[in-house]
Amino acid sequence: MSDTVISIRNITQRYGAADQTDAVLALDDVSLDIRQGEFVCLLGPSGCGKSTLLNIVGGLFKPTSGTCTVNGRLVDGEPHPDKVAFVFQESTLFPWYTVIENFRIALKFQGIAQAEWDDRAMRALKAVGMASFARHYPEQLSVGMRQRVNMARGICVETDILLMDEPFAALDEQTRMVLGEDLSQLLAATGKTIVFVTHSLAEAVFLSDRIVVMTARPGRIKTIINVNEPHPRSPDFMLEPRFSEWRNECYALLRDEIRATMAAQRDPQPQSAGA
Amino acid sequence: MSDLAVSPNKIPAAPSAFAKALRNPLWLRVALLAGVAALLEIYGRLYADPAFMSPPSLIVNAFFTKIAPQPQILLALWYCVAQIAAAYALSVMFGVVIGLAIGASGFSRSAFFPIILLLYAIPQVSLLPLVVLMFGLGPVAKIAFGFSHGVFPIIMNVVAGMRDVKELHLRAARSMGASRMETIRHVILPHAVPSLFTGLRLGMTLTLLGVILAELYVSTGGIGYFTRVFAESYDPAPLFALTGCLAIIAVLFNELVRLAQNKLTPGKRRPPTLKNSVKE
Q: What is the mean pLDDT of residues B161-168?
């Protein structure tokens, strides 16, 4: 595949030394290729290492073993802000700066020339319909508005790759659906490659081209589900029978994993933990 | 019952001035203070030993007859203000610089913060005689004692403010490519500002305490001297008047820090300046 932009090879992540009893194997031999312009969701039970994987791709964590390359360049625990932007939960906006200042600081950190700051910021804010709130402080906005701004901050740096770590987790359902639509439109308009961590089934199906379903700890790739539906997607997509089929497929896969985790927690014997 | 039937178009009449005043908590505060003053007045006039207690009216009277006309006492009050200001300025300078240095990394914090906590916990009053021996009877001892009280809460709160920065903010800054210095300048320091001001207010209270303690312990012509003179001559009215002056000084200094806090804390809720802003 020539258009592969992110290549994850045999990534293993362990917290704590291997010989210690409290060592946690978060990711176990994960390999995955992500193509240009693809929207990939990492879906899995909580604690399965999906955020860890995203942070490794973004260069925030250094993997215990394995390699990850972005655009052919090896990522080894060093962020590469010229190629990859992160969007976390809405609380990542700096509350001591106004909306526009939050953009300026992001662009400054990125090393963008000062002359471009405000143009880029306003373009990104207009894209999410928040241009009239540039002078507000984040706490003056509603949670949904803040997340729009936060998303726009990730967009304004104009990287090819956007990594999103449960960005909508703190939002109510209707707001996350609206933002999901925005995101789908953005993808269609800009051709960005997006890797998105979520534990919402509907969100995963609605947004993704591919859903990477992960196992409970230690995190491995269980299955990859292809969602063949063009972007931008409208809310009508959610009413289609195929939407429910994909969603149910994800649920069936996750259900086994969650049951296994619960059984392991209820009865922490070695043999049942491996079940 | 009939309330429910009121037509929705009917706008309730504006509340009267009296009703508005009644809703202001100020009246209760003033009433309480006035009540206490009245009780003190009655008790002071009818029952108290005039050698130990004075009714409020005599205290106010003493201020105008025995405090205000005496240039030495006014000068002593002025010195007191100057000493507090000097001690506080030193506390803020050293407190902020030392706090920033200690809070700059997890390593320096682990190394030095326990020492600061230990020093802060020492009851410094027991060292006051030593301070006076070291710095003499003049203003230096008072400034030194005010400084040693005021500096520690400032250090502690600067360090605490820098320590409590959100992990997610640090991670976001790192993912955007911020350098260590940029992270400190744009993430850690702004985050520490509210905590810094908590420290500045605590530091102000303790600086005042330190200076006045030193004043009372030994003083040859300052406020401490006059309080002793009034106390030892069984003349409570000017003593209370003088104490009232100190209280007013304390309130003014605290107000000053509070105003600075409201003015300078970034991201405080304030009305947006522009409705449809595009360019700054």
A: 89
Contact partners, residue B221, CB within 8 Å, separation at least 6: B72, B76
Contacts of B218 (CB under 8 A, 6+ apart): B132, B137, B141, B224
Please say whether the beta carbons of A192 and A231 come within 8 A.
Answer: no
Number of domain units in chain B: 1
Same structural domain for residues A235 and A100? no
What residues make up the domain containing B183? 69-264
Question: Does B275 sit within 8 Å of A88, measured CB to CB?
Answer: no
Inter-chain CB proximity B269 and A140 less than 8 Å:
yes
A96–B269 CB contact, under 8 Å: no
How many Å apart are CA B44 and CA B38, to the nearest integer?
A: 10
Q: pLDDT tens digit string along A238-274?
A: 888 888 888 888 888 888 888 877 777 776 655 444 4
The domain of A105 spans 88-158
Residue B267: closest CA among chain A residues belongs to which residue? A96
Q: Which segments in chain A show pLDDT lower than 70? A: 1-2, 18-19, 90, 267-275
Helix (H/G/I), strand (E/B), else coil: B272: coil
- Do both A60 and A193 map to the same domain? yes
Contact (CB<8Å) A97/B272: no
CATH of the domain at B260: 1.10.3720.10
C-beta of residue B125 within 8 angstroms of C-beta of residue B65: no
Backbone angles phi, psi at B274, to 5 degrees: -135, 140
The predicted structure's pLDDT at residue B8: 57
Q: What is the pLDDT of residues B54-96, one digit of tens each?
A: 888 889 998 899 888 888 889 989 999 999 999 999 999 999 9
Which pLDDT band holds residue B199 (cuts at 50, 70, 90)? very high
Distance CA B143, CA B140 (A): 5
- A60 to chain B nearest CA, in Å? 7
- Whether A131 sits inside 8 A of B278 (CB atoms) is yes
State the Cα–Cα distance between residues B235 and A123, nearest whole angstrom: 75
How far B171 CA sits from the closest chain A CA (Å)? 7
Tell me if the pTM is above 0.80: no
Distance CA(A67)–CA(A9), nearest Å, equals 5
Mean pLDDT for B173-188 is 89
Identify which of B166, B272, B280 has the shortest CB distance to residue A136: B272
d(CA B213, CA B206): 10
| Distance in angstroms (rounded) separating the CA atoms of residues B125 and A226 | 74
Whether B27 is in a domain gets the answer no
- Nearest by CB to residue B168, choosing from A88, A133, A135, is A88
Say how many domains are in chain A.
Answer: 2
Predicted complex: ipTM over 0.90: no
